[in-house]
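Hi everyone, sorry if this is the wrong subforum. Our group has a chain we'd like a structural model of before ordering constructs, and none of us has done structure prediction before. Sequence below.
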Amino acid sequence: MRSKKGFTLVELMVVILIVGILASVAVPIMRGRIDSAKWSEANAAAGSIATGIRAYAAEKGITNGTAGFQGASVNGSLTTGNAALGLANMDLDGTYFSDACYVVSGAAYDAAGLDFVITVTAASAEGTRAEPTTPATMTYTVTDSGPVAWQ
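Answer:
Right subforum, don't worry. Here is the predicted structure as tokens:
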């Protein structure tokens, strides 16, 4: 009697088919996770910008009715950093996002408190970074009425 050594061609083809099906399901799921991880870098940098805005408001004693944000150019692109917020050029440069990806808008202090929006765009100024593919833009909104919202 002969002993069987090895696999038949049909068994190998079934295994290859199963691996192919698993790979076709796993690749899109992993791609979404990679983009999510890339956006976490932007979230951390937006948190640093938010801390800078809060510190600036506290140091300058900005409250309802003061014009502190208008004179300090807190609002706008952070292409070259923002000295008022303690951010030098290239402080926000990371693996996937550069300084040019961040824009602060709506920084104001009203009767209810401090409000501002930080918009992060995935397309970097250098164009060589492996930025996330979806979504192209996310916003980090801080309002006086609630916690930070990242969308």
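For your construct planning: The chain has one domain: 9-150. Residues 9-150 form one domain.
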